[in-house]
Design goal:
This protein is an alpha+beta fold and 285 residues long. 21% of the residues lie in helices and 20% in strands. It contains seven helices and 13 strands. It has helices at 29-42, 53-68, 77-80, 108-114, 117-127, 215-218, 270-273; strands at residues 44-47, 74-76, 97-100, 131-134, 140-144, 152-155, 169-174, 185-187, 222-223, 231-235, 240-242, 251-260, 276-278. The radius of gyration is 18 Å and the shape is globular.
Length: 285
């Protein structure tokens, strides 16, 4: 398996001097092909310094303002009951927010980032067709708090997404350093193509780590340390998890998910409930 791919020279790494990443993101056809190859082999890629400081600053400013006021809709740690979460909303830490939901509708800065031509260009390459933004899944800012931020077990996002085809791409923007001290995201490279035994998942479709068939998978765990402005693109079928935040600062990450124009959410499911956004594609270079 390959390690996360840094941005090729001359590509998005030069974007840090611009407000929009689009004007500076100019990879060659060979570089795009390599991004695509690594993504389909490992189930993810990381583009270092992809989001400019100005974009990160504005997203963080709006996030902290809305987080301080708990502007709805929000998801609380106590609602999920994951390991380390408060036992209830009335318990100590019960007001800890896990994520700000429906980010696309919260502020123009989220809409601009989700539809940034540099983002949609990469996603289109990975999906092999023009992308649409789903408003039903992710579409949020993940907030991992000290003390009451919970641990998330090994899972695939397809456990609660319902599309004709499971190949969706999540775009995860780090708004600060993410490492083992504050609940770094961990992935299992190549796990997006692994066939599981029926008994490997529990009732909530989390991986049963003690299952004998899970041992080989777990030997390949890769923590994805990220810096502010790094962007992770990952397949919705990729197994990933995250630990608790042992630092004293809140970890913030903006996440949006995309599906291809030839795909669609299944009618009557949560995936179809909130609709989707067709995205303008940058002109071919």
């Amino acid at each position: 398996m390959n390690s996360p791919l840094a941005v090729p020279p001359g590509a998005a790494s030069t974007a840090v001097s611009t407000v929009s990443t689009a004007s500076a993101f100019a990879p060659t056809a060979a570089e795009l092909n390599e991004l695509n190859r690594v993504f389909h082999a490992d189930g993810y890629i990381v583009l270092r310094g992809f989001a400019p400081p100005q974009v990160c600053d504005r997203i963080e400013q709006v996030t902290r303002e809305q987080l301080a006021a708990a502007v709805p809709p929000v998801e609380y740690e106590a609602e999920l009951g994951y390991p380390g979460a408060p036992a209830s909303r009335e318990a100590a830490g019960g007001g800890t927010v896990r994520r700000l939901r429906q980010a696309y509708g919260r502020d123009e800065v989220f809409r601009q980032w989700a539809a940034d031509p540099a983002v949609t260009k990469v996603v289109a390459i990975l999906l092999g067709e023009p992308p649409l933004l789903t408003l039903a899944h992710h579409n949020c800012v993940m907030t991992k708090h000290p003390h009451y931020g919970s641990q998330t077990g090994w899972h695939r996002d397809t456990r609660y997404w319902s599309f004709a085809s499971p190949e969706l791409v999540t775009v995860w923007l780090a708004l600060g350093r993410e490492d083992e001290s504050n609940g770094v995201l961990r992935v299992i490279p190549g796990s997006h193509t692994v066939a599981l035994e029926p008994t490997q998942l529990d009732a909530a479709e989390f991986l049963i780590e003690s299952h004998p068939a899970s041992q080989a998978l777990l030997r390949g765990v890769q923590p994805l340390a990220l810096e502010r402005g790094d962007v992770l693109f990952f397949d919705s079928r990729l197994f990933h998890s995250a630990g608790q935040n042992l630092s004293e600062a809140v970890k913030l990450s903006a996440a949006f998910a995309y599906f291809g124009a030839g795909n669609h959410p299944l009618p009557g499911t949560r995936s179809a409930e909130f609709g989707s956004i067709a995205l303008p594609m940058p002109a071919a270079s």
